[in-house]
């Protein structure tokens, strides 16, 4: 804080005009300030920069809490350049205390990767990734995750753009705002996949897997931008609900509740630092920016004034009988194919070795030894 204050309070004169003992004077002045004083001054600078009536994009929904905190929810399309700009503008306008993104600890790596690396990773789906997904989520959930990754790779290839650009922009902009915290607001992905798989019947799983395997429809950037239009998005979601209502409940509705809960937790009032323990505690309303997919915005608005409890949607149900049967059949099929492959390879190898002239000559010599 002292170093930050020193930079903020530095005299903007050029180095040639500065006196020789300038840095020493600045250092002695800064020592007269406590961390609490430095915090208050920087906070005042931040509040002055914060717009009272921010000019926000049309994709932003403003929500209020009972204690006066404000939450600005930016609805985004995950493969959209304009969504990145919406996030940057919103954070710059409101100078938030907390930024919450629709990510969990299992997907946080995308914040550290550059666009080129992510583009390469999204297109490469190999056996190693499949093994990792199965190890992390189980057989059924792991396979479903790989199918969804295939869909993401299809969109990535069509658009030439890696997903999650708006989250990376949010991370960069949040680091520029003094005292701004960065929160991961989504439910852990293994919980989501396991609950989604448990909610589907055997034939629904087969139908969904078949549809994901053969997804090849062309996608344009205009199609992605249309997803930011609430009317069109609601129509698409309605079609999905009709096809797989239980899947919509676990992947969308339950995560709406979880995201709402995390946003409300982030919007709790901020305690100001105290010069001493005897000084009374003071609180100010918080300003929060949430960055979520546009499909979650209606659910967040719907759940905002509800008393939310997330214990139920965090539990993982035991595997159903159909899942156990499918898992057994899948394992038996894999081991059967491996065994048959080894048998065929071994059988052909033996035939090839026996047909070689050198082998036949050696066998002939061995048969002649007992006769002699």
List keywords for this structure.
372 residues, five-stranded mixed β-sheet, 16 helices, 7 strands, 8% strand, elongated
Main sheet overview: 5 strands, mixed
The percentage of residues in β strands lies in 5-15%
Main sheet: which strands, in order across? 1-2-7-3-4
The geometry reads as elongated
Number of helices: 16
Number of strands: 7
Helix content: 55-70%
Tell me the distance between the termini.
Answer: 98 Å
User: Overall mean pLDDT score?
Assistant: 75
Order of helices and strands: HHHEEHEHHHHEHHHHHEEEHHH
What Rg is obtained from the alpha carbons, in whole angstroms?
Answer: 30 Å
SSE-based structural type: alpha/beta
Uncertain segments are 1-30
InterPro entries: TraB/PrgY/GumN_fam (IPR002816), TraB_PrgY-like (IPR046345)
Organism: Malurus cyaneus samueli
Protein name: TraB domain containing
Region (Disordered): 1-32
Describe this structure in words.
- With 372 residues, this protein is α/β, with parallel strands linked by helices.
- Helix content is 59%, strand content 8%.
- It has 16 helices and seven strands.
- Strands 1-2-7-3-4 form a five-stranded mixed beta sheet, sandwiched between helices. It has a two-stranded antiparallel ribbon with strand order 5-6.
- It comes from Malurus cyaneus samueli.
- This is TraB domain containing.
- InterPro entries: TraB/PrgY/GumN_fam, TraB_PrgY-like.
């Amino acid at each position: 804080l002292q170093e930050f204050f020193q930079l903020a309070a530095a005299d903007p004169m050029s180095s040639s005009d500065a006196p020789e003992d300038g840095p020493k004077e600045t250092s002695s002045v800064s020592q007269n300030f406590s961390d609490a004083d430095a915090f208050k001054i920087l906070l005042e600078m931040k509040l002055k920069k914060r717009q009272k009536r921010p000019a926000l994009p049309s994709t932003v929904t403003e929500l209020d809490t009972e204690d006066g905190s404000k939450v600005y929810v930016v609805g985004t399309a995950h493969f959209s350049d304009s969504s990145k700009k919406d996030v940057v503008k919103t954070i710059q306008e409101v100078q938030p205390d907390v930024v919450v993104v629709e990510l969990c600890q299992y997907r946080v790596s995308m914040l550290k990767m550059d666009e080129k690396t992510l583009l390469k990773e999204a297109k490469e789906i190999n056996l190693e990734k499949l093994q990792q997904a199965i190890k992390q989520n189980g057989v059924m959930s792991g396979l479903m995750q790989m199918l969804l990754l295939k869909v993401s790779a299809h969109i990535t290839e069509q658009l030439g753009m890696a997903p999650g650009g708006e989250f990376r922009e949010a991370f960069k902009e949040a680091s520029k705002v003094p005292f701004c915290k960065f929160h991961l607001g989504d439910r852990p992905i293994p919980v989501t996949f396991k609950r989604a798989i448990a909610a589907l019947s055997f034939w629904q799983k087969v139908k969904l897997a078949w549809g994901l395997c053969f997804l090849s429809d062309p996608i344009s950037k205009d199609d992605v931008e249309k997803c930011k239009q609430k009317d069109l998005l609601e129509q698409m979601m309605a079609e999905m609900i009709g096809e797989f209502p239980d899947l919509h409940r676990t992947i969308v509705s339950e995560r709406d509740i979880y995201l709402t809960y995390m946003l409300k937790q982030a919007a709790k009032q901020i305690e100001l630092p105290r010069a001493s323990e005897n000084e009374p505690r003071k609180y100010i309303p918080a300003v929060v920016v949430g960055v979520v997919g546009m499909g979650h915005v209606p659910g967040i608005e719907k759940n905002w004034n509800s008393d939310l409890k997330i214990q139920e949607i965090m539990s993982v149900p035991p595997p159903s009988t159909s899942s156990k049967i499918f898992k057994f059949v899948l394992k038996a099929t894999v081991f059967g194919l491996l065994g048959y492959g080894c048998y065929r390879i071994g059988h052909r190898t033996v035939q090839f070795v026996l047909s070689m002239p050198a082998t036949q000559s050696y066998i002939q010599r061995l048969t002649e030894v007992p006769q002699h």
